[in-house]
């Protein structure tokens, strides 16, 4: 009986780890801009019109103001979620191919102050 319980506990732990490793990097949240994608801390995610599918064009000063939603080597893309390799060798998350960013002027969960900035930044929906 004890080996069976150990095997079952191992299977549960492995399943939980697999679910966590493949969990979407963002969730939907209701904001003043409607339902938008937010990161694990509830910070609004944005897309940049100067990006193309699978390619980030936000670096240096741009990335300081619009930090990328970073991915780790353990993260696994699935479905509409992909991982974009940045020119500096790091990786970031994308939704439907479009790289995702937060905005440094968003101070709390659900802020959407980056919507429409420069006519090129938009909340991710």
TrEMBL record:
Residue ranges of the TM segments: none
Signal peptide (from-to): 1-23
Protein's name in the database: Predicted lipoprotein with conserved Yx(FWY)xxD motif
Pfam family, one: Lipoprotein_15
Coiled-coil annotated residue ranges, if any: none
Stored PANTHER family: BLL4220 PROTEIN (PTHR39335)
InterPro entries referenced in this protein's UniProt entry, alphabetically: Lipoprotein_repeat, UCP029720
Protein species of origin: Kaistia soli DSM 19436
Keyword annotations of the record: Lipoprotein, Signal
GO BP term (any one): alkane catabolic process
């Amino acid at each position: 009986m004890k080996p069976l319980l150990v095997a079952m506990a191992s299977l549960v732990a492995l399943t939980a780890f697999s679910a966590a490793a493949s969990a979407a990097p963002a969730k939907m949240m209701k904001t003043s801009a409607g339902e938008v994608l937010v990161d694990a801390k509830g910070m609004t995610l944005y897309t940049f019109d100067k990006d193309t599918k699978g390619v980030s064009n936000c670096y240096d000063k741009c990335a300081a103001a619009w930090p990328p939603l970073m991915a780790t080597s353990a993260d696994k893309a699935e479905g509409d979620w992909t991982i974009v390799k940045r020119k500096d060798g790091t990786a970031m998350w994308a939704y439907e191919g479009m790289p995702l960013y937060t905005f440094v002027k968003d101070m709390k969960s659900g802020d959407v102050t980056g919507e429409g900035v420069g006519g090129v930044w938009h909340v991710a929906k």
